[in-house]
Amino acid sequence: MSMQGAALQSYNNELVKCIEELCGKRDEIHKSILQEEEEKQKLQNDIRVLTERLAKVNESLAKKMASRNEFDKTIAETETAYMKILESSQTLLNVLKRESQSLKEKSTPAPGAPLQRGGMPS
């Protein structure tokens, strides 16, 4: 029976050794899980921070785009009004030249016309 006891003792030792190896591997995996969970938490926090930053940038962009659109509208309206002013100035200049020419023609004495007392032809 001592051979059976020795074999049993050998099996027992081998079983204990296998259990200890399994526990060691389990501990390694547990440490790896803890590290990855920590990394996951950091990544989730980074995502939260970046999402908040993205929202702020989008809000800022929307405000700036609206402001730019208002500038574009104001510039377009001002340019249109300026063009109308230029057209009116050109029209006024043409009318003034025409009236000036008409007045010059009326005030120029005809050749041989007698002068009136004021120095103007009749």
UniProtKB/TrEMBL annotation:
Residues 26-60 form a coiled coil. One of its GO terms (cellular component) is centrosome. Keywords: Coiled coil. Residues 98-122 are annotated as: Disordered. Residues 98-107 have a biased composition (Basic and acidic residues). InterPro entries: SSNA1_fam (IPR033362). This is Sjoegren syndrome nuclear autoantigen 1. It comes from Elysia crispata (lettuce slug). The lineage of its organism: Eukaryota, Metazoa, Spiralia, Lophotrochozoa, Mollusca.
